[in-house]
Design a protein that fits this description.
Largest sheet: 2 strands, antiparallel
Order of helices and strands: HHHHHHHHHHHHHHHHEEHHHHH
Radius of gyration: 22 Å
């Protein structure tokens, strides 16, 4: 029988911490004279007290140095992304915009999973504290998913992530303190990238509040904005600034740690990094070439800038938009859907399937073709000069299978709520892949899904959580054998 108390202890501490962080937008709204600060204070008190009581109730089971069992690790990862968004939604219900439970939880889950789809309209008129809280949720979610990807998923052997176990830290048993070391290093890198992004945005003309908010949602590849028009308000050089940091945030954070230690080689040699940069360049070039072919008189500089920004924002899963993507032709639109299904690198804040899995799949296909040509040859899948075990390959193939099935099932279920086919498919795409934008007649002019039926919002909430946690780490909880563990 699994003892849930160590899991409850950790979740309690995280919930209490979230409550304390709510004091930041509380102070902001109080400082600017907005009475909305009372809603944040009330939410902070409720959240902090609940987290503290939960942690205290489970503290005796936390046994020093014991670490977590594998089953407890699965419970913890899912529990964090289930419980924290619930409390993160409180300020949206108790204060402005006075959202329903479905809309508030949708916004909070979209934030913490760094999906970026919004259920709110009139963002320009929301209190500064509310918009800041949306940015904080994404910033915390981005940091959290990097830590989970580098520390927990390799141990849980989800989707081939066990291949990176030697690069990360074993979080079980006696080696648990080393996980704290890598978490500390990650937090430092994450904060440094965020500060640099703030300074870069301000250096190119963005105001301090906008710079802080958009830096948090850029580095987390989340894409929330304080404006209904998203990044269209900042068209120009700021788009290139955003591209730089979206790309950086989509790269493996372990490489930044190595870079900070003075070792440049791993970043340059990483197949994921090279492939990710190439594929972004290919997509941008194909769309620019297509548009120039369709309209030879197009403004080349504006075309390159808009295409680069919007391809990178979808590829990384950030979800900003500087133009109405639904007006792009069929070929560019399909290209955006494809890159959104690839996503960033593993151990980054990027979303979707991840470049690593595509590289493994491509190499596995090549090996199978070579084996057909030379049945007696001894050929193995190779990655980074290391042999990839059958266990990793099978995990990757299983992940692809479950991703496609989940995407298909969610699309069908969303269509059954009354959404049109295009809307249902892109809504499933944005939820499972945590990409951001949705397209279709039911999507509002600002890209908000506030007009969706409530069942569709609940389905997307589930899809966002499952997609962010790499599918299998959630699905395993529904297996009877897991609970017998």
């Amino acid at each position: 029988m699994i003892d849930p108390r160590p899991v409850g202890y950790v979740i309690g501490l995280l919930v209490a911490t979230l409550g304390v962080i709510m004091l930041v937008p509380t102070a902001l709204d109080y400082a600017v004279g907005n009475g909305h600060w009372m809603a944040f204070l009330e939410s902070a008190i409720i959240t902090t007290l609940f987290g503290a009581v939960l942690a205290l109730a489970c503290v005796n089971a936390n046994g020093k140095g014991r670490g977590l069992t594998l089953q407890q690790t699965f419970l913890l990862t899912t529990g964090v992304w289930l419980v924290l968004p619930l409390f993160g939604a409180l300020p949206f219900m108790l204060g402005q915009p006075g959202a329903s439970l479905a809309d508030a939880l949708f916004e909070s889950m979209s934030g913490m999973t760094t999906t970026g789809t919004t259920a709110f309209v009139g963002l320009d008129n929301l209190p500064m504290g509310t918009n800041l809280w949306r940015g904080i949720l994404q910033w915390l979610g981005g940091l959290g998913i990097v830590i989970v990807a580098m520390i927990f998923l390799p141990v849980m052997k989800v989707g081939g992530m066990q291949f990176f176990r030697s690069e990360g830290f074993d979080t079980l048993g006696k080696i648990l303190p080393r996980a704290l070391d890598i978490s500390t290093a990650l937090i430092r890198i994450y904060i440094l990238l965020s500060v640099l992004c703030v300074l870069a945005y301000m250096g190119f003309g963005m105001g301090p509040f906008d710079a802080i908010l958009h830096a948090m949602t850029t580095v987390s590849t989340g894409g929330f904005s304080s404006y209904d028009t998203s990044f269209a308000r900042f068209q120009g050089p700021l788009e290139y600034v955003s591209v730089v940091f979206m790309l950086l945030a989509s790269l493996p954070f372990i490489r930044f740690i190595q870079l900070a230690q003075g070792d440049f080689r791993p970043l340059w040699r990483d197949p994921q990094v090279r492939a990710y940069m190439r594929w972004n360049l290919y997509a941008i070039s194909l769309i620019v070439g297509y548009e120039l072919f369709a309209n030879a008189n197009a403004d080349l500089s504006a075309l390159v800038r808009e295409t680069t920004f919007n391809v990178v924002t979808v590829f990384s899963g950030t979800g900003f938009a500087s133009v109405d993507l639904s007006t792009w032709g069929p070929f560019p639109f399909v290209m955006l859907i494809v890159v959104g299904l690839i996503g960033g690198c593993t151990s980054s804040t990027g979303c979707s399937v991840k470049v690593f899995r595509y590289l493994i799949l491509i190499e596995a296909v090549k090996v199978q073709i070579r084996r057909l040509q030379s049945p007696n040859a001894v050929i193995f899948v190779d990655y980074e000069g290391r042999r990839v075990s059958e266990d990793v390959i099978n995990s990757v193939i299983l992940f692809f299978t479950m991703f496609i099935l989940s995407f298909g099932v969610l699309s069908v279920l969303l269509s059954l709520t009354g959404l049109q086919t295009k809307t249902a498919v892109t809504a499933a795409w944005t939820a499972i892949a945590n990409v951001g934008p949705a397209f279709g007649p039911e999507v509002g002019p600002t890209g908000a899904v506030n007009g969706f039926p409530e069942p569709a919002k609940w389905l997307m909430i589930l899809g966002m959580m499952v997609g962010r946690l790499e599918l299998l780490s959630v699905y395993v909880l529904f297996m009877r054998r897991f609970w017998r563990g």
